[in-house]
Design goal:
- By secondary structure, the chain is α/β, with parallel strands linked by helices.
- It folds into 2 domains: 171 residues, Rossmann fold, CATH 3.40.50; 113 residues, 6-phosphogluconate dehydrogenase C-terminal fold.
- It has 12 helices and 9 strands.
- Helix 4 packs parallel to helix 5 and helix 7 packs across helix 11.
- The protein starts with a strand and ends with a helix.
Length: 290
Amino acid sequence: MKKLVIFGVGLIGGSVALALKKAKHTVQIIGVGRSADSLQTALDLGVIDVATSDVTTAVRDADIILIAAPVAQTPAILAAIKPHLTVSTVITDAGSTKGDVLRCAKEILGAQFNQFVGGHPIAGAEKSGVTAAMADLYINKNIVLTPTPATDTQALQRVKALWQACGANVSEMSAATHDGIFAAVSHLPHLLAFALVDDIASRPNAEQLFGFAASGFRDFTRIAGSHPEMWRDISLANRTALLDELDAYQQELKHLQKLLQSEDGEGLEALFKRASIARNNWGESRKQTQ
């Protein structure tokens, strides 16, 4: 790989660039984005080698194109790069939803859809932008790739090698499986955190409530500080699976409500115990894999 083009040099795209530089990879990294100021910051920080808004210049002779912008921007980016792709250019993305991305990639890229590899790095932070980028963001983190029967084997291997060079553990699954899993364990928790903070902030005594909020509130709502545009796009893109998860969670809340209304202490404790054991077991398994 001699030339990597990154659309969206923020936390995700910028961390890929920094990881490759830390690994002493000799690839030239081209940054493309909507904000000239952000691109200049990426240049000043040494995250990218070249910044441009000219898609033709950026894509020419590119080995891999990484789309690390919010998922709603993916169709426009694919349409912009399509006329400039060669038969050997590999295109991948870092979006948190995969079914919608693969559908639009197939529609826009047509015969070159086989050169596209859907991807999702399971890593991030509540802060966004290139100033939040970290060279070690992907060390021992999971990266999910979602190839289709049409995906070129060499393209898949090149994308896998890119993420492995960043220190990540790469796995593969279907887009449908991916979207169902992450609706439950990522997208739903973000919606709940946003909703709780919005509820508290809208109350007349919000200042008093925030004044007494402590570690429990901080830990539960940390992800409510995430990028609003990105999470708007993710929520809409994965709305079908997310609506199913919201229905399931509302049933759990109704169960809790009934236990409280009936003053069922035994039932509450049993639920809390099941959840506590599951959470602690998950925490221990995470420690063992890190």
